[in-house]
């Protein structure tokens, strides 16, 4: 097709009349036409040659348009966190899913809902489409840091990842849509910045544990035999997932295959696990199994209670309630209490054995190197970083401005140098950070009740139950707390124990007089 115009007309109008008409008539296919001109040397005419682009040209334009659309979304902010999968909180209906991974260290399995598999396929294709193109070279990360979302390859396919830990030459990363964690050499893995275009979907894998069973462990890990058996069984999916409840960031489930065989029962039947017994009355008095069951029940109860109450603060809304009392907030029009996304490191003052500290750190998505716990005891918990506390000098062995969140659960009433301890907490807390304190109500009318609680606390320490169940070896180390040291060195006499209980009970005085 050609159109005849003069050079003067061409100079006067940037587009010919036919050019304009085609654009108006065919707005959706207008870009599929190419335009060229042929000028007559003697006649002074200009021929506008219009032709339909071939298929390859159209595909290339579509390709470039998609690249531009994805790239224009921009890089996610440094405080971005992947949203949790909504199926994690679905406890009332059975759904179909695939087991994507087994973690022998966390005793967990990771499940992808069947209804989200098409999302997974699309996400994987689009990630590979964009990040395999040279245009993504500008997104290469040159300095690896922990706590940030990125994109990287697994088995030559691009996936969304989260860098959990960074140790200079090595780092620990989690592929969030597979929920698979591995340690990699920094110089052998390439990371690229995550674009907002790929950030809308929640993490597609859900952390789960098999309900009502306890694995037989080897050095706190799932045995290799159990791990292999679970991996073999997961290949037979999909499974019908029967959710029971959400606990400590994981969904407790029962898995059934198409023949209605229960995955949980198969593991028990093969002798790789035992049916969990949380009953406090099923064991006879004095049974050697009764104390471990009671301790486990107490530990889980304490962790869940603290986590639920903290979630009320972190996920605040006006109609939230804590586990035991209505949650009152002043001022009443407050929209947010804590910005969870800003918390990159955390310190727990009075962490005891560190189980609650580890649970809170896991809920916040923090790595071990950013979860700190301090107590006058020297406990060992591999999930947290222990910090030395000098009770007499009120010092905490952390740099200034090191943490974004400090918690202290029913600890302040044991502190003699309260003002200097608070000053030390202010020192290690970053500007804009948060201090969350839970303490007895020490008003005069509650003083007797609080003394009673302190009395019970002292009895628990002597009996070694609850948070003190595993502390038998920890007090043998040098302890700054004279009361505990005297007690541990003289446990052979009831008189010394009784004196310790009285002294410990009276330790509430200094704080109750301040309130």
Automatic annotation (TrEMBL):
Coiled coil: none
Any Pfam family matching the protein: TUDOR
Domain of life per record: Eukaryota
Gene Ontology MF terms in the entry: S-adenosylmethionine-dependent methyltransferase activity
Ranges of residues in domain Tudor: 97-211
InterPro entries cross-referenced by the UniProt entry: Methyltransf_11, SAM-dependent_MTases_sf, SNase_OB-fold_sf, Tudor
Domain Methyltransferase type: 348-437
Designated name of the protein: Methyltransferase type 11 domain-containing protein
């Amino acid at each position: 097709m050609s159109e005849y115009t003069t050079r003067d007309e061409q100079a006067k109008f940037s587009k010919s009349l036919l050019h304009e008409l085609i654009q108006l008539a065919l707005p959706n296919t207008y870009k599929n036409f190419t335009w060229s001109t042929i000028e007559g040397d003697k006649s002074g005419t200009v021929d506008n040659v219009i032709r339909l682009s071939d298929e390859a040209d159209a595909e290339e334009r579509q390709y470039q348009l998609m690249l531009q659309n994805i790239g224009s979304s921009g890089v996610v902010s440094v405080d971005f966190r992947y949203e949790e999968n909504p199926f994690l909180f679905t406890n009332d209906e059975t759904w179909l899913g695939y087991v994507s991974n087994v973690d022998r260290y966390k005793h967990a399995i990771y499940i992808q809902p069947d209804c989200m598999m098409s999302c997974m396929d699309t996400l994987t294709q689009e990630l590979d489409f964009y990040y395999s193109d040279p245009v993504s070279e500008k997104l290469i990360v040159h300095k690896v840091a922990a706590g940030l979302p990125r994109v990287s390859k697994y088995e030559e396919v691009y996936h969304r990842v989260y860098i959990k830990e960074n140790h200079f030459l090595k780092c620990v990363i989690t592929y969030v849509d597979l929920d698979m964690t591995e340690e990699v050499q920094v110089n052998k893995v390439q990371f690229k910045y995550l674009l907002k275009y790929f950030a809308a979907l929640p993490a597609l894998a859900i952390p789960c544990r098999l309900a009502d069973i306890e694995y037989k462990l080897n050095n706190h890990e799932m045995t290799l035999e159990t791990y292999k058996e679970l991996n073999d069984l997961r290949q037979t999916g999909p499974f019908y997932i029967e959710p029971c409840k959400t606990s400590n960031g994981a969904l407790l489930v029962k898995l059934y295959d198409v023949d209605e065989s229960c995955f949980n029962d198969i593991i028990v039947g093969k002798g790789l696990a035992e049916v969990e017994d949380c009953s406090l009355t099923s064991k006879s008095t004095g049974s050697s199994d009764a104390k471990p069951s009671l301790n486990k029940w107490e530990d889980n109860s304490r962790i869940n209670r603290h986590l639920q109450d903290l979630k009320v603060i972190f996920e605040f809304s006006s109609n939230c309630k804590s586990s035991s009392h209505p949650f009152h907030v002043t001022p009443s029009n407050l929209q947010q209490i804590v910005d969870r996304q800003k918390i990159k490191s955390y310190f727990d003052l009075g962490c005891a054995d560190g189980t609650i500290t580890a649970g809170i750190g896991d809920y916040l998505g923090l790595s071990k190197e950013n979860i700190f716990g301090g107590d006058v005891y020297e406990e060992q918990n591999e999930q947290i970083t222990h910090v030395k506390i000098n009770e007499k000098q009120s010092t905490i062995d952390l740099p200034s401005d090191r943490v974004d969140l400090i918690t202290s659960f029913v600890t302040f009433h044991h502190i003699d140098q309260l003002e200097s301890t608070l000053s030390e907490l202010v020192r290690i807390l970053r500007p804009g950070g948060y201090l969350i304190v839970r303490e007895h109500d020490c008003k005069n009318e509650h003083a007797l009740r609080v003394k009673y609680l302190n009395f019970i606390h002292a009895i628990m320490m002597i009996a070694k139950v609850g948070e003190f169940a595993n502390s038998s070896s920890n007090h043998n180390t040098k302890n700054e707390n004279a009361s505990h040291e005297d007690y541990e060195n003289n446990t052979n006499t009831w008189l010394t124990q009784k004196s310790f209980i009285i002294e410990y009970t009276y330790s509430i005085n200094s704080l109750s007089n301040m309130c």
